[in-house]
Structure of dTDP-4-amino-4,6-dideoxygalactose transaminase:
Amino acid sequence: MIPLFDLTRQYNKLREEVLRTVDSVLSDGRVILGPAVENFEKELAEYLDVKHAIGVANGSDALVIALHALGIEKGDKVVTTPYTFFATASCIVRNGGVPVFVDVDPETYNIDLEQVEHAIRKENAKAVIPVHLFGRTVDFEKLHFLKVKYGVKILEDAAQSIGSEGKTDNIIKKSGTFGNIGIFSFFPTKNLGAYGDAGAIVTNDDTLAERAKMLRQHGSKKKYFHEMVGYNSRLDSLHAAILSVKLKYLDEWTERRINIAKEYQRLFEEKRLPLKYPKVEEKGYRSHVYHQYVVEFEDEQTRDRVKEYLTKNDIGTALYYPLPLHLQKCFAEYGYKEGDFPVSERLSKTTLALPIFPELTDEEIATIVEKISEVI
Ligand SMILES: Cc1ncc(COP(=O)(O)O)c(C=O)c1O
């Protein structure tokens, strides 16, 4: 059995350290916010080179709170991609805003920034939520241009891309830290994952940080005195302590993910397989951290045939994402229809996620590629 993702292999290596840190939090007794959360926030901010990191309950809440902190309110238009996880768009609706979708680039699967510019002008949009999909950084130069030219707010959805980097004005920055505000998810399968739900908001803006901090705690700075109507969305202290342990290994794990992508690429090239895969690029910075390894087939039939054959051979796969967001029933009121975003619609039918996690072995990669080769 080769699973799509396996948390237990990692746990076997970290067991002692994780149990020790859990014991220290429980012995300390401060399990809501307190030192474990503060430590992790400080370490995360240092790792990302950003002024503020605020731990929250999950990545979806991080998006809702970040948009709220930015001041998005009823009727405000926010541009985003339909080829992403649901929470990227639901946060807009949950703040009373209106999602404006534009298609993705067929090469990177990230939001097409030319179309974003057009949408900002046409819809007078207040904000943009780019997603660094599957771990690949959105083009910072173009984003910077939009930020300056139109004054739109940028909320980076970096849920899948911790540690990935981009470049603007010759400065390399980590994803999540480039926009006005950014968010991360520490869902267990993420490159940095907790043992349950967890997330964070990051920003260099003191006012946004203060608002986000209040919003995660019922809109209050001082207990029982509420300046805003906020949420109960704190990062659990136990998860924070475990994330501190794991953060130390993140770069090592990321390197292994990049090497796994290289190994897939080597074997695909050797076997001359008719599929499209994310090429490892030498840019001098980490433009992709391979949160997911997603390949693309010629058509839906081939994709489904490969999926079925791999399942039969005990190899895990997944579809990210089978129905683009503009076609979701709950967004019907916005009037989108099939054919509006051909690239996203095609990718939802032709792509397949293959196993990737740092403990995946080269032998397992060889087996996966062999099985794909057999079926196509
Ligand atoms: C792109 C993207 N945005 C937001 C989220 C939401 O994060 P969470 O699952 O922690 O709520 C996820 C996680 O699945 C995601 O992949």
Observations:
- The domain at 250-375 is CATH 3.90.1150.10 (Aspartate Aminotransferase, domain 1).
- The mean pLDDT is 97.
